[in-house]
């Protein structure tokens, strides 16, 4: 069974490229609002559902948050592959920090892993948000 995001009724949430900017448990300032530490956020859902969802070839998208869940599942997979060769916590930490600093292709750019999943950015500012 595919697991879908619980963030289905987030109509008043801002979005970029059709991807909702859902609240995150973070102390880093960014375009997404900050979530309470005791609430489940979309990253928690992606981590919780990763093991089950990674095996599915097809995923019926029921809400915009499902698109974000798909992308986060992909990102977790990339992160785990980067950690494969790391022998120490320091090496692993450095690998994840470097992954976070890499330029990420946005919808419409070559290298974006899911063409057609998200609409193209309507402006340079929107591309910078996603």
What does this structure look like?
With 130 residues, the protein is mainly alpha-helical. It is built from four helices and two strands; from the N terminus they run E-E-H-H-H-H. Strands 1-2 form a two-stranded antiparallel sheet. Strand 1 (15-16) and strand 2 (19-20) form a beta hairpin. The longest helix is centred in the middle third of the chain and has 20 residues, at 64-83. The chain is globular and about 45 Å long. The two termini are 29 Å apart. The mean pLDDT is 88.
Write down the Rg: 15 Å
Could you say which structural class the secondary elements and strand pairing correspond to? Answer: mainly alpha
* Spans of at least 5 consecutive residues with low confidence: none
Strand content: under 5%
How would you sum up the major sheet? 2 strands, antiparallel
What pattern of helices and strands is seen along the backbone?
EEHHHH
Average pLDDT confidence is: 88
Helix content: 25-40%
Q: Say how many strands there are.
A: 2
Report strand order across the widest sheet: 1-2
Terminal CA distance reads 29 Å
Which overall shape is indicated by the principal axes computed on the Cα atoms?
globular
* Count of runs of 4 or more consecutive helical residues: 4
């Amino acid at each position: 069974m595919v697991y879908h995001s619980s963030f289905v009724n987030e109509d008043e949430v801002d979005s970029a490229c059709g991807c909702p900017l859902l609240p995150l448990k973070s102390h880093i300032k960014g375009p997404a609002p900050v979530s309470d530490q005791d609430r489940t956020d979309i990253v928690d859902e992606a981590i919780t559902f990763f093991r089950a969802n990674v095996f599915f070839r097809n995923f019926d998208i029921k809400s915009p948050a499902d698109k974000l869940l798909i992308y986060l599942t992909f990102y977790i997979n990339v992160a785990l592959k980067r950690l494969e060769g790391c022998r120490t916590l320091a090496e692993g930490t450095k690998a994840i920090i470097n992954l976070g600093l890499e330029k990420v292709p946005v919808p419409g750019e070559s290298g974006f892993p899911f063409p057609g999943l998200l609409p193209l950015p309507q402006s340079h500012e929107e591309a910078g948000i996603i």
